[in-house]
């Protein structure tokens, strides 16, 4: 018994370390991006360029891991699947990152996090439109609650900027389309991708999509003689973004989607608080907090409904297997670390928050429990 207790304590400690790393990286990437892009700090106001650096770096690392080190094997990707699945998903992924990063030029990190509460609303509407979700009264009223909360937060924002808000909401819409398309196009074809293969196929394609707006909008301005490129700043920034992809995947695989949702909520409040300290120009009003609390209550209720529905469906299909899955969810067994690299599927339409460098695919646990940043 003493040995078992020691093992369980180590398991719990390791789980908390995983969560701490996830929250730190998720918050760090968002704050780092804001610092790099802001004209008040590092002064590199080129969000498309920054996103392209992330895509090039992630794609390069994925290529090295697959083709050189052979950590994982590439999937059987046909030209038809690439054109009909990877290309549209990459396009919306590129758009979500581009618009999301551009919003940093106009609005505060705190307000961006409040607007991100709209993520489940956008995903639900897209899913209903494409026929992957049914319009339900209980979920609909949760979406109304979230929307009202975000409107109140926006009304209480001191430095409200229409352009920045439009960019952020556009990024949320693009991310919602990507999440639903990932489910419709990839999952329905029986394709399973882990974080490495996801970046291997999607990052280069996203880079190509970003090249056109970059060439038109940012390249002329970057040719100014006073522009300087600090290699270590951009390398560390891209490295943090890549680490966030892997850490989120590992945390979900070890703790399950319920835990990652709770950690995401804590991370959002922490990020809002930190941003006001690190960036004094961003101020939070009482109306901001009240509105965000209302929106967050709607998100929590939505998460609960999705988790309850998935659990019920799993129990109806196979009670024994579902019970085992939930037991494994509790234990957080070490075997997960070996299996998660081979069991990734994309049921990401349950994703409630997204980060600027959120993972492209998620653990198979999401398909059982439903599912976060930057």
Topology:
Layout: H1 2-37, H2 47-68, H3 79-102, H4 109-115, H5 119-130, H6 137-155, H7 162-186, H8 195-222, H9 231-255, H10 257-278, H11 286-317, H12 319-331, H13 335-339, E1 344-345, E2 362-363, H14 366-369
Antiparallel strand pairs: 1-2
Summarize the structure.
This protein is mainly alpha-helical and 374 residues long. It has a two-stranded antiparallel sheet. Helix content is 73%, strand content 1%.
- The string of secondary-structure elements, in order, is HHHHHHHHHHHHHEEH
Strand composition percent: under 5%
What radius of gyration results from the CA coordinates? 20 Å
What characteristic shape results from the CA principal axes? globular
Mean pLDDT: 81
Order of the strands making up the biggest sheet: 1-2
Number of strands: 2
Overall SS class: mainly alpha
Gap from first CA to last CA: 41 Å
The quaternary structure here is single chain
Largest sheet: 2 strands, antiparallel
Alpha plus pi helix count: 14
Proportion of residues in helical segments: over 70%
The unreliable regions are 325-374
Characterization of the model:
This protein has 374 residues and is mainly α. 73% of the residues lie in helices and 1% in strands. It is built from 14 helices and two strands, in the order αααααααααααααββα. A two-stranded antiparallel ribbon has the order 1-2. Helix 2 crosses helix 9, helix 4 packs antiparallel against helix 10 and helix 9 packs antiparallel against helix 10. The longest helix has 36 residues. It is globular, with a radius of gyration of 20 Å.
């Amino acid at each position: 018994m003493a040995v078992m207790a020691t093992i369980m304590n180590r398991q719990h400690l390791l789980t908390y370390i995983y969560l701490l790393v996830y929250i730190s990286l998720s918050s760090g990437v968002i704050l780092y991006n804001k610092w790099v892009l802001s004209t008040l700090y590092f002064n590199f106001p080129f969000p498309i360029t920054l996103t392209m650096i992330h895509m090039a770096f992630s794609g390069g690392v994925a290529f090295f891991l697959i083709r050189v080190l052979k950590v994982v094997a590439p999937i059987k990707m046909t030209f038809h699947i690439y054109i009909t699945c990877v290309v549209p998903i990459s396009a919306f992924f590129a758009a979500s990152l581009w618009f999301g990063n551009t919003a940093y030029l106009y609005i505060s990190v705190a307000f961006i996090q409040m607007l991100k509460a709209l993520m489940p609303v956008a995903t639900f509407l897209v899913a209903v439109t494409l026929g992957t979700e049914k319009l339900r009264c209980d979920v609909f009223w949760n979406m109304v609650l979230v929307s009202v909360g975000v409107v109140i937060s926006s009304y209480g924002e001191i430095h409200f900027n229409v352009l920045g808000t439009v960019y952020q909401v556009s990024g949320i819409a693009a991310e919602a389309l990507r999440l639903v398309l990932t489910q419709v196009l990839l999952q329905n074809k029986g394709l399973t991708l882990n974080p490495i293969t996801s970046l291997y196929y999607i990052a280069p394609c996203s880079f190509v999509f970003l090249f056109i707006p970059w060439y038109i909008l940012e390249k002329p301005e970057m040719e100014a003689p006073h522009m300087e490129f600090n290699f270590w700043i951009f390398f560390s920034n891209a490295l943090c973004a890549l680490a966030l992809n892997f850490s989120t995947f590992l945390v979900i695989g070890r703790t399950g989607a319920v835990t990652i949702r709770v950690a995401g909520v804590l991370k959002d409040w922490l990020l809002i608080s930190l941003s006001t300290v690190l960036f004094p120009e961003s101020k939070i009003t009482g109306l901001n907090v009240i509105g965000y609390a209302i929106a967050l209550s709607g998100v929590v209720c939505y998460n609960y409904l999705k988790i309850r529905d998935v659990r019920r469906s799993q129990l109806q299909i196979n009670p024994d297997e579902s019970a085992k899955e939930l037991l494994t969810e509790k234990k957080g067994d070490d075997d997960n670390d070996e299996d998660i690299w081979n069991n990734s599927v994309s049921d990401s339409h349950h994703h409630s928050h997204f980060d600027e460098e959120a993972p492209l695919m998620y653990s198979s646990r999401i398909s059982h429990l439903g599912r976060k940043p930057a």
